[in-house]
Amino acid sequence: MVTGSSSMMTTGLGMFSSSDHTSVIVSLNLFVALLCMCIVAGHYLEKNRWMNESITALAIGLCTGVIILLTTEGRSSRLLVFSEDLFFIYLLPPIIFNAGFQVKKKQFFRNFMTIVLFGAVGTLISFAIISFGAIHIFKKMRIGSLEIGDYLAIGAIFSATDSVCTLQVLNQDETPLLYSLVFGEGVVNDATSVVLFNAIQSFDLSHINSSIAFQFTGNFFYLFISSTMLGVLAGLLSAYIIKKLYFGRHSTDREVALMILMAYLSYMLAELFYLSAILTVFFCGIVMSHYTWHNVTESSRVTTKHAFATLSFVAEIFIFLYVGMDALDIEKWQIVKNSPGKSIGVSSILLGLVLTGRAAFVFPLSVLSNLTKKSKNQQITFNQQVTIWWAGLMRGAVSMALAYNQVQGKGSLFSRSEAKLRGNAFMITSTITVVLFSTVVFGLLTKPLMRLLLPSQKHLAGTTPSEPSTPKSLTWPLLEGGRDPETDQIDGKPNVPRRTSFGMLLSTPSYTVHSYWRKFDDAFMRPVFGGRGFMPYIPISPSDQNDDQWSLTRQ
Amino acid sequence: MVTGSSSMMTTGLGMFSSSDHTSVIVSLNLFVALLCMCIVAGHYLEKNRWMNESITALAIGLCTGVIILLTTEGRSSRLLVFSEDLFFIYLLPPIIFNAGFQVKKKQFFRNFMTIVLFGAVGTLISFAIISFGAIHIFKKMRIGSLEIGDYLAIGAIFSATDSVCTLQVLNQDETPLLYSLVFGEGVVNDATSVVLFNAIQSFDLSHINSSIAFQFTGNFFYLFISSTMLGVLAGLLSAYIIKKLYFGRHSTDREVALMILMAYLSYMLAELFYLSAILTVFFCGIVMSHYTWHNVTESSRVTTKHAFATLSFVAEIFIFLYVGMDALDIEKWQIVKNSPGKSIGVSSILLGLVLTGRAAFVFPLSVLSNLTKKSKNQQITFNQQVTIWWAGLMRGAVSMALAYNQVQGKGSLFSRSEAKLRGNAFMITSTITVVLFSTVVFGLLTKPLMRLLLPSQKHLAGTTPSEPSTPKSLTWPLLEGGRDPETDQIDGKPNVPRRTSFGMLLSTPSYTVHSYWRKFDDAFMRPVFGGRGFMPYIPISPSDQNDDQWSLTRQ
């Protein structure tokens, strides 16, 4: 992911830079206990209309920070020092993989072009506006010595939508269209921010010309396509291995272990080749839920579904807990404490730029996207546009990690130059402020806002026309639980006669692409890689005889 | 666990001491790919009568070590540097917790006294013999300057049975008695080795007298009881929280996350209080499988059972893979390469001492244990004694970690004194040799040996008398799958009339203790902490209506 400089990596994979064994044990104990607290608190606040799990974790993190600050007499608010590696190597992969594994695939691919438009062009627009605004306003404010690269980095940092936050705020079952748009945008957004960050740190920024812009575009397409391909290949390989060896005959544990390891391998390979690991692992998750998941035993299916969700859930809470605790780190605030007004000003300006930058691409691009859709039902209404704009405003752990990367890449907070030091401190503190403010305030307001703007969410979701298929498909959605990774595959059984009249072909072109894909899938892909209804039926244990019951019991 | 010195902990929780980001990524990629290879290879070798998963992983690790050694032109055979913390903080907890979670509880508690006898007294006997032998033989060989503390440390290192290996070699379903004896011994063994290690590093060894022996015994009982209590408390707390809050109504993920986190918390708390974390997490696993597991939803039950097993499985392979790669570390071998004969001699002597030390306690203590059992069926036959002796001979990752701890605690391999350096190098290389030899040779021979000594294993296992209970219990074992953590609880349904005639009370006293416990459990524990049949029946989803079917489908 972020591979700008290597000097920041001096701690290697050292997750925590505490040097004392006992203090590490103490920290881990407190962290695990806090995670348990967050889970229990989250359970009680579930029905609350304002709160969500992220805000609870942030609040608990902040409180713990205050307590530690008081007990250590102001020396430190942190138990563990934030390491980018901890975030990018251990916490992010399960979150994004699980998102791909559980995403409603049909909804996602139907809006694929819109998602890429938002994620690529939109992020560039947002980046340009925030960078341009920062250059013009901050130069007048004199907040320390920042170079052109720093301003562009600010643009990249604050145009990185936090997909983790989005997952918490939007509900896939209630608002499938919005979820797939905002979350999909967040995933593509990552590829864009990798290109932006690499570009800022490697290109000669004093000579921006058309050849660099061309190189930049080529780089983006290369990254996007190769990352996706790697993820798809890893997923298909796992499906093929499990289908050929038929592990289930021997061991559920082997199947589960292989799925987890292959997914993680795809992420790490992408990191190795400087691709967008987030895109890779996301597509690996999609392919695994389409093929691999159907090749394993029933107990492996239940286990993977819940184990991946649990891993992702714990990683998310961990991140928010950490951001909450990290926010109170005293060192950074001491540098900027002499100019509190300026600090608040910088943060407010950045928040304003984030709001403007997002508005500047959501509304025009939505209109553009609507032009290509003939059916009224598929268009994005104005209220939905406002929700998309709002739901993508949150900035989270990704922004924090990028900010630390930019500062550390240039000689850390303890830079020799006083002006440099002040500039860096402002960058960190304002990032923390924006992250906290956007997560807490925007996050708190999202649920009420959505209730206001989209009062009939369930109804809206229901209006997406059902796929042309046999009447049998009408009974399937009732049999399938809402959280089944495969609800999209309504008529997944092979050899079911399919009505594809020519009139329907013309009126709904996007369905045609889908139905061609389905034909290709049934004819070539599934026989090789397995998938629903394509595994040989070998009764091994009594559990297999209950296969049909499973569709009922799976929740 | 091992808390002797803090100077060795300078890397903190830094799992790998590689300093370059890219090399970390490369290492992780290779490691994950190798893990996948081990799983696939293990699948193919399942039916093989010699191999097991540990030996496969060791072999793959050794081959990789050779390849790396050749490609780096002899500079390094290792991708990642072994850190004790990686082992004790991340890899060991899931293995031991899963062992407790899946252990057949009735078998374990029936042999509880024998297990403690083997684990505590047996380890002390073994320790004394190995230390005494090492002092007398090595002093004559002049293999470098070793102090009395080093010889005692050698005794502690080589009397640590590797419970991970045991899990791989013995099968719980085929030989339940042997499994519970050898594995249980391994768990208690750990508590003993912690006391031994702490004693060696903290007591003044030049003045061994009766007060130290008394202190030592007191320390052991304190450790044993407090570690067990902590594990039981953590397990009960998790059962209580999940029962009271009834998380399942909302989220399977929360339940699974809470179980994992509470188990890990118990391990880390034991580490914090210098207790035996292995004992704690083992008992936490037992309590969780008895209470907590029955309070969660069906999908959580399937998920936890397989997720814990998978975690443990991957951690085990990881350890053996690493030990295989680490064995070829060139630095250590270069120091001892001038005296290959001496090196082989030291290793052979140590292997001989391990064999003698184990024989010296297994046979006498088995006879002692047989004296207390009146029923012929419950006694340990001579062939079984030989198997117990043989199956506990393997030394693994625990011995490696202890050896590194002893060496690093005294100023690392790069000690200033040449004699010291040689002594340390001999200690490490001979540990590696013993670990490799015992795992590969003893491990390979275990399966054939058991087939030879115990030809009618299944028959033997069947002779353990079934619990006095209603005829209903006869149908239960058929309904229950072999891997259900609760097979022991044959008549778990409350309010079932139980035949407890006075005659039976006298003839089988150990069952009486068990039946008193059952009464207490049903009257006081289960109403508070839940357990089989003690959760309120609230139909939430269709899955609950299939509860009885589940006993059938669970495999």
Number of E strands of chain A: 0
Mean pLDDT of chain A equals: 72
Backbone structural class of chain A: mainly alpha
Principal-axis shape of chain A equals: globular
Assembly status: homodimer
SSE ordering of chain A? HHHHHHHHHHHHHHHHHHHHHH
The biggest beta sheet of chain A reads: none
Instruction: Give the termini separation of chain A.
Output: 35 Å
Estimate percent helicity of chain A. over 70%
Measured by residues with Cβ under 8 Å of the partner chain's Cβ, the largest interface is: A-B, 73 and 73 residues
Low-pLDDT sequence parts of chain A: 1-19, 410-416, 457-507, 536-555
Number of helices of chain A: 22
C-alpha Rg of chain A (nearest Å): 24 Å
Strand content of chain A: under 5%
Subcellular location (chains A, B): Membrane
Membrane topology (chains A, B): Multi-pass membrane protein
InterPro entries (chains A, B): Cation/H_exchanger_CPA1 (IPR018422), Cation/H_exchanger_TM (IPR006153), NaH_exchanger (IPR004709)
GO biological process, one term (chains A, B): regulation of intracellular pH
